[in-house]
Amino acid sequence: MTMNATGRPTAPTSAPAPSSPADAALLPAEALLFEIGDRDHSGVDLPDLEVGDERLAGLRRKTPLDLPGLTEPEAMRHYVRLSRRNYSIDSGMYPLGSCTMKHNPRLNEKMARLPGFADVHPLQPVATVQGALGVIEELAHWLMELTNTSAVAMSPKAGAHGELCGMMAIRAAHAANGQSHRDVVLVPESAHGTNPATAAFLGYKVRSIDANANGTVDVAAVKAAIDDNVAAIMLTNPNTCGLFEPEIIEIAEAIHEAGAYFYCDGANFNAIMGVVRPGDLGIDAMHINLHKTFSTPHGGGGPGAGPVVLSQALAPFAPVPFVRRSGDGLELVEHPDATSLGRLTAFHGQMGMYVRALTYMLSHGKDGLAQAARDAVLNANYIKAGLDDLFTAPFDGQPVMHEVLFDDSFLKGTGVSTLDFAKAMIDEGFHPMTMYFPLVVHGAMLIEPTESESRQTLDAFIATMRELAEDAVAGNAERFTAAPIRAPLARLDETRAARQPRLIWRHEKTEAS
Ligand SMILES: *Cc1c(COP(=O)(O)O)cnc(C)c1O
């Protein structure tokens, strides 16, 4: 690797010329706010404070706060420059598998910013927030309709939080039925890490189930793992290999026969919404990641939300609060009855996410949601067909759902790892796919285009991936191991960043001391 005058490594000769080089002149290194600003600057002129009686006793701070002062243009430029160094769903394709990084329609944002939603306070009298409660109620109705379930807990704030909610409902149900001795949760090997973590967090023992040669779970393997101590199974469908579990109904029957419950990880609901109703498959509890299925991906507009739909058997154990019709208005039920598992969050959940998700549903309609799911599946299979001959798939021979999984066997002997390959994608203008997950596959590359991407974008992605694969196999490892060279920062020492993160910044003058 060679360095140019700016200290940035230059492209190895095998790489094509950069189409849009990160130009040092226009993308200067960005200093911290604390380095740009000082205490004498301010974006606003405030009158001097009249300090009245001292009411802080001994608690008043003795040293200056040392916040950086910046003029308005300085502050604005700092943040705009930073934003330009960031890759986002609004600047290009984000093929992360398992994450469902779909487009975030601007209509959703407009609705979420309506003052009647954005400015409500969780402690306002319910008579003044009937519209907001109406949104929660209607969204809950859509979620139960789409899943054919009896109840939904709206308050969980992420997928993992939803898992906790669903598994607490299962634990409460077992306790109510005198089955508290059940202390084992079955979790397939291919599960998202949050599944075993949730089970372990609640004190359950995790019993792992192997995937078969097709990357799915056999009912025979589940039956072999069942005994009187099994409380539940946590199964993802479609699973993290991008495959629909073909024996899911038989698995549900076997689990119920054994007196256990079926927790379904529904984070990949984008592949089946409007097409399959999980309640028809026999699930008892399932979280839905509003931030994956109904737009608003991570970083695309706000926090997440992980409502949990519940079967009739688990509905009595749902947490508070929930919205209920009373007379011609809506009320918030805030106090748990004898069976409810209680309260999971301080207030009522993520209002902004509810508005965005319902806007997405209403603007698509039921038929539009099913179309989005079908298009997501079509796009994943289009990528699979475009790469199949060069990339190696661990579970070949079947169409995939919303995401396509490759492994690293096509890179064997090239000196290029999955990580190197992903870094080279950055140089070609594509955000990498999910790497090294699911763990059941060596050097996994998990690609999920979602329904958002046009055929033109998919073709460009496929062409880039093909060109990279051919170059790796042709022996040009240096292009990969040196990558990225066109990103604002080149290859980072990720191990050091993870092990010795520098989380505190100090003024130079104090740093020496
Ligand atoms: C994203 C995801 C989760 C966790 O959801 P969070 O909102 O990130 O907590 C769980 N399971 C699967 C399969 C996922 O893809």
Features:
2 domains, Aspartate Aminotransferase, domain 1, seven-stranded mixed sheet, disordered N terminus, three-stranded antiparallel sheet, binds pyridoxal-5'-phosphate, 12 strands, 513 residues, 17 helices, globular, alpha/beta, Aspartate Aminotransferase, domain 2, 35% helix
pLDDT < 50 stretches: 1-23
Tell me the strand percentage band.
5-15%
Bound molecules: pyridoxal-5'-phosphate
SSE string, helix = H, strand = E? Answer: HHHHHEHEHEHEHEHEHEEEHEHEEHHHH
* Name given to the CATH architecture of the largest domain: 3-Layer(aba) Sandwich
Radius of gyration: 26 Å
- What is the count of β-strands? 12
Biggest β-sheet strands, sense, barrel: 7 strands, mixed
Structural class designation:
alpha/beta
The end-to-end span amounts to 37 Å
Task: Describe the global form.
Answer: globular
Description:
It is a single chain. 35% of the residues lie in helices and 10% in strands. It contains 17 helices and twelve strands. The strands form three sheets. It has a seven-stranded mixed beta sheet with strand order 1-7-6-5-4-2-3, sandwiched between helices. The protein has a three-stranded antiparallel beta sheet with strand order 10-12-11, with helices on one face. Strands 8-9 form a two-stranded antiparallel ribbon. It is globular, with a radius of gyration of 26 Å. The protein binds pyridoxal-5'-phosphate. The site of pyridoxal-5'-phosphate has 14 residues, from helix 6.
